[in-house]
Amino acid sequence: MIGIDEVGRGAWAGPLLVVAARLKPGQKLPLGLRDSKLLSAKQRQSLAVEIVKSCDIGQGWVSADMIDKLGLSRSLKSATMLAVMDVAVSKNEEIVIDGNINFLDSTSYVNVRTKIKADQTLPIVSAASVVAKVLRDQLMVEISQKYPDYNFQKNVGYGTVNHRQALSLFGPCRVHRNSFKPIKALVANR
């Protein structure tokens, strides 16, 4: 089974990432897996190391610029397709996508289902969730070094109070999603 989850859907800055995870033959998933949002950063880091050893991992990244051009729905479809291609999913393999939207509905994959809160109930989807969160958070820490005023190492691009304050002071930077309402509103009011 392939587990798929995304991170960064609602962020105001940075990329969207979809991860597809498949357990390698003869391997076991680490104990303690659950939705990445229910784990501490330290727990996620530790689990991610074990997950990468035991699973094939596919990544589908879509930049803020592409999200602005494609829109969020098409970006999610694109990122999901990139992730399954990266892990070389065959068209008959069972795929479970966290949520209620099949982002592979117009593809040749025939055994796809969606499940709300799959990242809390299916360990392979939890594995995808953890790896996605760790990878995107690491990238946002790197981006924060280039754009220190936005505190991306803490808010990872989401609409926190301090992120909103930084946007008010400095305006959006290159990694902001200018098509998102809060950013559009801020730009319009400047």
Layout of helices and strands, plus pairs?
Blueprint: E1 2-7, E2 16-23, H1 41-54, E3 55-62, H2 64-70, H3 72-86, E4 95-98, E5 112-115, H4 118-121, H5 123-146, H6 152-155, H7 161-170, H8 181-188
How does this structure look, described?
With 190 residues, the protein is an alpha/beta fold. It is built from 8 helices and 5 strands. The protein has helices at 41-54, 64-70, 72-86, 118-121, 123-146, 152-155, 161-170, 181-188, and strands at 2-7, 16-23, 55-62, 95-98, 112-115. A 5-stranded mixed sheet has the order 3-2-1-4-5. The longest helix is centred in the C-terminal third of the chain and has 24 residues, at 123-146. It is globular, with a radius of gyration of 17 Å. The N and C termini lie far apart (49 Å).
Count the beta strands.
Answer: 5
Could you tell me how far the N terminus lies from the C terminus, measured between alpha carbons in angstroms?
A: 49 Å
N-to-C series of helices and strands:
EEHEHHEEHHHHH
Largest sheet: 5 strands, mixed
Q: Which strand order does the major sheet show? A: 3-2-1-4-5
Radius of gyration, in angstroms, nearest whole number = 17 Å
Structural class: alpha/beta
The helix content is 40-55%
Oligomer: single chain
What is the overall silhouette? globular
